[in-house]
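In this supplementary section we document a worked example of the pipeline. Step one takes a protein sequence of length 81 as its only input; no multiple sequence alignment statistics are reported here. Step two produces a three-dimensional model, which step three serialises into structure tokens for compact storage. The input and output of this example are shown verbatim.
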Amino acid sequence: MCHEIPVVDLKATGKNIQELRREAGLTVKDLQKVLGFANPQAIYKWQAGYCLPTLDNLLILSEILGVPIEEIIVCQKCKIS
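The serialised model returned by step three reads:
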């Protein structure tokens, strides 16, 4: 039996975070301040698709960017057997 499961596309999600941030008129520095980060490295890693924000940070991004979490994360369907 073959099933399809959702898989997060890290690169597409990173690009989406960057695009949503720009559309909201925010800089990386702005997000850094709101999220309380000492440096912006984590945000650059998200945008480059190296990793994802934690659930807590996704909730904050959702609020700041004015979109539901589902619009931040980009998923693809992956077939498994």
